[in-house]
Each structure stands twice: as structure tokens, then as C-alpha cells.
Amino acid sequence: MASWISSWVNGEEKNNEEGKVADTEYVAPSADEIRRKRLERLAAMEAAAAESSPPPVAAQEPPRQPTPMEIKPPTTVDPKQTVVIPSPQARQSDALSAEKKRKSATKRDPLHNALQQILGVTLNESQASHALMYIPVESDTIDGNNSSEILYMRLLNEDPAFNSTLEYLFAVFQKVRTESFGLSDADLLVVQSVQEQCVNYSVTCLLEPEMFSSRSTPLEAFDRLVRSPNASTQPYLEALALGLEAQGGNAALGRVVGPILQKLVSEVFLGSQSILAVESWSPCIQTIGSLVRIKGFATVFTNIPGFLLTPPLNGRRLQDATALGILLRFSSDAPDPAIKDMFSNITKRSRQDVNKSIDSLRSKMSLLHDIVTDIFRSLLKAGAHAKDRVIKWLEQAVVVNIEGAKENPNPALVSTAGMLINLNVVLLRLCGPFLPPATKHSLIDPSFLKCWPNPLFPEDATKLVQLSTNPLQNSKSLGDFNFITQCFYLTVRAMHLGPVATIGKYMRLMRQLSYVQNHMNDQSDPRVRMQFEAMATAKMVIDAKLLQPELLHEMVRFALLSANAVCRVCLSPDGKAVVSGFQLPLQTPVEELLVPYVPEHVVEDIVNILLFVARFAPEELKSFAFDDLLTMTLIFLSSPQMIRSPHLRAKMSECLFEICLPPHESEDRPTAGIPSAVNSLVQSRMAQQHLAPCLLALYGDVEQTGFYEKLEHRYNIACLLKYLWKCPDHKAAFLLISQNQPAFVKFAHGLMNHINSLLTDALTNLPEIKSLQEEIQSPQWLNLEESLREQKQSLLSEKERTVTSSLQLANETIHMMSYLTSEIQAPFLTPELEDRLVGMLNSVLVKLAGPKGLELKVTNPEVYKFRPKVMLREIVETILHFSQYESFQVAVASNGLYDMTVYRKCTNILQRTQLVDPTAIAVFDQFAQTVEAFYSSNTHNEAMLGDIPEEFMDPLLWQLMKDPVTLPSGYVVDRSTITQHLMNDPSDPFTRAPLAIDQLVSNDALKAQIEAWVSQAK
Length: 1018
Known about the structure:
Strand 3 and strand 4 form a beta hairpin. The chain is built from 38 helices and five strands. Keywords: Cytoplasm, Nucleus, Transferase, Ubl conjugation pathway.
């Protein structure tokens, strides 16, 4: 427990190193001295009240006119005697005559009746009761002339009905509200004067508690008062705050309210951390919220010990040793068995029952968020000092939780995920006024990113662009920027440490759940089932806090605002340009922009948030426009100098796939397909001009990502391209990339590599799947040991998943090759690509229709997305698109994978199944015959050439070179060979030194020698 928490619990007040004024040592005075000081103080206050109270009202003439007020000087009161009360015998002589007069007067005087109830006094001894204390005065009624004197006299007498004078004064203040109805304006002034006097006496009571004798101290009474709020409590506290500030400034406020606030926070700290324990934390936090709505009290709260974090600085101490951290730490992360019990036996419960548990958790989280957000708003509105202290705490919160960005953070150094999500809820609500489009976006000052050292982003954070020289920086601090800028960048960083980090954990948990579920059956080891139950419970707990509709909605709003801010940074040096009217690709040098200052995670978080919501709560996206997301994606895809990471650019295409692609366009993996996003994708003029070429280029760039990531990204891109190809306004843009030879070669090479690798993996595993299926169905299966059967079943499941994934992507890729080549042929027939194209087509034909084709027959092929007839049809269509080109015919015949029997078999299959129309079958048959003729000619020519000189042979493929080039290392290879190599590996294959295609030098002399030798040999 933090030391300052201990002091709160023990009722001690230590010196506040952050500016709190300590109380001076107090020596208890004697009883006589206390009474003397009390009477002197009260007399002075009563006289002051008489001077400031409104004039009294005449009894006979309506309306009543003010008359001077005369009260006996209080200094004549004997210190030994509170009030001189006549004996019963002395009063009895005139009691009967006065009684009738009093009753008559009070019946016709509403002011008297109101003040009697407000003050709890009576001037008629016979009416005295536990609710009305008898006060003997010479007047028959209570009015503006004597109300101050009567209140003064009432305070000098203890009342068993109240434990403290402060309780009585609050009761008087409270009754003014209920007893003022029906009074005239003049009477209301008198009543309000009494109320003001009550506040003044309350201030004295709290600052000089020895002035009044009572059964409990004024601070104890004040504590009880603030914990039992009603309609009058807040006005009373507001008036009390003004009185305390006027009497003793911030020191007086701190002396009275500071201990109460400290005690409330300590009680929150000592209670249960579970979000379920509402009865434990809610009353105290709500009381704190009520107090800090008053500006003076809010300032005191920001000055209490432990408001800001002191060393050691880490996220766990921020959560457990600062006031705001303690208020935010309640979540489902607490080690509360009740939370686990809410989701126990998850596999045996209905979804409706589980949803009830989730809703129960969320309702309690929502209550906490509402209360704590109000506290933050009150503190930020309390004045410059309080606002600066809150901003400083928020800065500490994101700085000390840097550990939260790690995949496996140290729990001893970081706040819990639940606390960080609570913090983000508060920050997102504070951002609310400037989140909607066209509000105050322009007030976000991106020059904050140039601060060095940056108060929020770590020095080693990866930037979108890494420059060779350090960019210019400034030495401003967070406090030098406006609140909108502060709030925006605080939320940017907090989102990365909180919700985005939890999203990463959630996705990893989902993969683990899927794996365990796939390996679990009715006979599974009970330990596996227990593991699954534990992980399922963990998932539901995260669902409760992370999939809150309000949180997701605000996260999406903030992500789209961030996308707009990122676009601005890319468009002008000051980062404040309007996101419209610009041309792509961007031409401004990166060095002149703020892009090199932008942490990479800012953009990645935008993408991760939108992807997460699209997959798990797509309904939360339906109310948004996604123009800024599409614009940001187009900027980065068309201007790769703005962002170096191919992984991040690939994730942007994934975001378009999930949000902007209609669901039916991805048969195997339905998307969110948000209508507004689909419309933006189709109708945006910028997208019509640039998206297709950008995606085609990206298809080649993702070769640099990991193997499995590459497959996933290319599937997404293939689905997007297929949809855009069907959009008339987009189709023309596909031709643009074919005019950019280097970019097209990169794309086409990736496309063909993709087809080859996918089909090789899938079609290699299909025979193994078939063999395992046959073994499982055989009578001998039951004779195997159980462990061996489980091992083989597990292997079958793994291979089935691999094959399904590979074929799913292969189907889209082969289809893309078919429709692209229907209108784009020439670029594929360049020396760099033609041999590669022919090799890919021949390889697929051999796999589908070759000698081993029968081995591909498996049970339920559609389960694995294996559609051999569709594949064969689209490969044949692709071949037909090039069939009229002689160079293509020669290349097919010259390719090492060419098999004339396979082409003949394909013709027979086409004729038997009518996969294509008869005209196309005839064209294919004629093409096969032409290729066969070229093959025969090639065989004859090779025989004539005989032994080829070694210097004419390509050293990598060991075949006759047609276009030799010299590498910087001096080695000579064929241009097509080295070009294909550089697509996969930008290095010299002989020396491993970096190598680019523009470093190749044509060896014209050797080329002439080869051509001369071939001519002579023939």
C-alpha cells in the first residue's frame, strides 16, 4: 500500500509535497477559553449579519417598508450563561394574555411561519417540542428585525436532535428551499439572508471547530453530509466553497475538503477491485464526483498527496498509488472468482445466458465510465491549475505504461488492460466535441510531433519514414499546445497502449481457441477441455470490456479522425491542409513534410481498429463515412515514399477488403461490406484513377512479407481487383500499370509465383489427404493403437486446413490471371515474363491433366475448395488469350514442362465436358497442334546444334542464352534468368552483393557470337 494511502486510512495528514498547506500544531484550550472565544466570534458574526441582512418589514402596511434593525449588543451576554431565560413563575403572569396574541399573529404572518420552520424554533413556550426549540425574545413574531438574533441565540444552545452544529446549519439551509413557496419578494430576501448567515456560520464551524460544542466534530459532520446527498447538498456545498475561499483562500478549502477527499479515495483503494462490487466503489466515487463539480473543491482534489505519481514510475503504481488511477482501476481483470463464475461451463450454456452475463458486466462498466468521466470533466473545467495537473497526470499515464505496447508485458510494470481501456473511454469522451467531421479538426496542431524529447511518444518508436539525417525538432512541451491537440495525441498514444494492445491479445487468443477446438472431440483428454473452457472464459471477459458498443463506436470515430489528420500531414509542410484538391502520386519531398515525425503505429492502429470492428462488430460501422480512410490508403499506396513498410501498406488493402468490398464478392470469407464504404470505393474519382494500379503494384510488393502473410494479402487484393474489374469506371485504370514496365513485371512475377506455390502446396497434399481418408475408412483402422489414430487424425486435420487455405487463394488468383489477360497481353510477352508465364501455365496443366491427375481425387473436394474443372477452364482461357502470338507458341514448345500428351488430353476433356464453347475448343486444338509442330522443329534444331559451347550457356539454368547481360561482379547470365531472380532476391546470385536491374549491362558482343554460332550450326 502506498504510504499516502496509509496516512489517509489512519486519519493523518502529511505535508503535501505538491503544494498542500499543512495544519499547524493545535493545543486544546480550556473550556472557559473555548466558551469566551465562541461568544466573541458569534457576537461579531451576528452583528455583521445584522448589518448585511435585508431591512425588516412593517407589520401594518402592505407592502412592508424597511425599518432600522436594533439588537442588543451581544457583548452583554454573560459568558457563563448561554441565554437568560425568565423563571416559569415570572412568565406565567402574562402567558395567557400573550398566548392569544401570538396565535393570532402567526396565523396571519407567512414569514413568521416560514422562519419558525426553517430555524426550528418557537417564541411560544407551549409550542416547544423536539422539532421546535423555545427561544425567549420580546417580539411576538420572527421577521427581518430579529431573525439574525434568533439564529444567533439558537446556535448558543445544544440540540439533542443534531450531533453537530454543522448538521443544524445545513438543515436550516435545506429548509429555506422547502419553506419559501408562497412568500413575497420582500420576505424571500429575509429568508435568503438567513440562508447566507447559515453558510457564514458553517464556514466558522469548519475553520474554528472549538467555537461550537457538539457530540461530533464539524469535519465528521461534513463527511456525513457529503455522503448523503439530496437536492440541497450541492447548492450548500457551492456556497460553502465560496465562503471558505473568501475566508481563507485555497488553504481553507484544502484544510476542510482535502481530508474528506483523501479518505474517500483511500476507501476506494481498500475496497474490492472487482467491477462487480458496485456497492463497494460506487458510493465513494459518486461522492468524489459531487465534490469536484465545485471548482474550489476540484482544485483541492488535484493538490492532494498522491494525485501525481512519484518515483518509482511505472504503470502498476500509477494504478494503485494515484487518486485517478485508483478510480479507473475497476474492471473485469480483477482476480474475482465471481467474474469467472459468470462464464463457467461456457460450452454447456446458451448464448442468451452468456449474453446476460456480458450485459451485466457492461452495465457496471458503463456506470463507472459515466461517473469517472464526469470527474475528469469537472477537474478540467475547474481552472488553469487543476487542468494542468490533470493533463500532467494523463501524460504520466501514457508514459509510464510504455510496457503495455509489448506482446507480453510485465504485469508488475504496467496498468491492467481494463484500467487502460477505462482511461481510453474517458479520453474518447473528452475528444467527443471534435470527433465529428467538419468540427474542429483544424485546431489539431501536428507540429506537436516535432517536440524533442516528445512527451508522449518514445524516442525509439519506428516512424513512417526513416530519413538519413535527423529532422529538425523543437523543445516545446505538451502544455504549450491547445487542449484539443493535447487531448488528441494523448488519446492516440493511449489507444495504442490500451484497446489496440488488447485487440492483439484477443486475436492471439482466438487463434489458440480455434486450434484447441479443432483438436477437441468427444473423447478428448479432460485437460484439453479444461484448457478450452479457461480460454473461452477469458475470451468472454475480454468481449465484455472490448466489444462494448459505445467504446467501439467512439474508437471508429477516433480512427477516422486520425486518418484525416494523417492525410493532412502528408499534404502540406504544416500538416493543416484541407484534404481535397490534390493530385496523386504526391510530389512534395518527404523531407519538407511532417511525415518523418509520425510514429508508424499511429497509422497501424487506425487499420487495426477498423479491421477488428469490421470482423467482430460490423454493425458499428454502418453509420460512418469512410472517405478519409480511402484517401489515406490511396495516398500511401500511390506514394510509397510516404511509408516504407510493405506490411503496413498490405494491411491497408486488407482494411479495404473487409470494409469496402461487398460480401458476395468474397465467396469463401464474407466481408463487412459497409454500403457507404462500397459507394465511396466505386464512386470516388481518385479511386477510379489510382486504386487498381496501386493494388496491382502492391500485389508484387507483398512478396517481401512473410510466406503466410503474403498468401493472405494476395487473396484480399485479388478479390478487390476482381470487383474493380467489373466496375466500368475502374476498368480503364488497369491498363495504366501495364504501361509501367518495371511495376508490371514485379506484379506479374508475383502473380505467377503465387499460382505456382499455392497449387504446388495444395496438389502435393491432396494425395496424402486421399491416402489418410482411405486408411481411416479401412477395416484395419480400428486395429491401430489409439495414440497412432489420434496422430493420424491430427495430421489429416492439419493438411485439410493447409489445402483449403491454399486452394481458396489459388482459385482467386487463377481467375485474376484469366480476366486480366483477356485485355492485357503484350506486357506478359516481354522477355522478362514470357518464359515465366509459359512455365506457370504448363505446370498447372501437367498437375491437373497429367499422369498424376487421378491422385487428386478426394472425398468431398468442394470442402477443400478444390474445383479442378474451373481451374482447367480458366487456365485454358488464359492460354487462348495468347494463342495467336507466335512467340508464345514457340515459348510453350520450348519450355521444359511441355508435354504434348497433356495438351491432347486437355482437348479431349474440353470436348467431353464442354467447359468452354465449341469455338474455343477448336482454337485450343489448333493451338496444341501448332505448338506440337514447333516442338518437333525445336527437337530437330537442338539435334543439329549438337554440343553448345559452355560460354554460351546460362550458368544458372544451363541453357543457351538469348540475351546475355554482364553483372557488376563480371558474371554473364541471360537477361530473363537474372530478371526473374531479382524479383525474389535483389542480390547477385554469385556474390550475394546487392543488385538492381538497372545495373545489368547488355553483352552485345557475346549475343552476336551466339547468334552467329546458331546460324552456322543450322
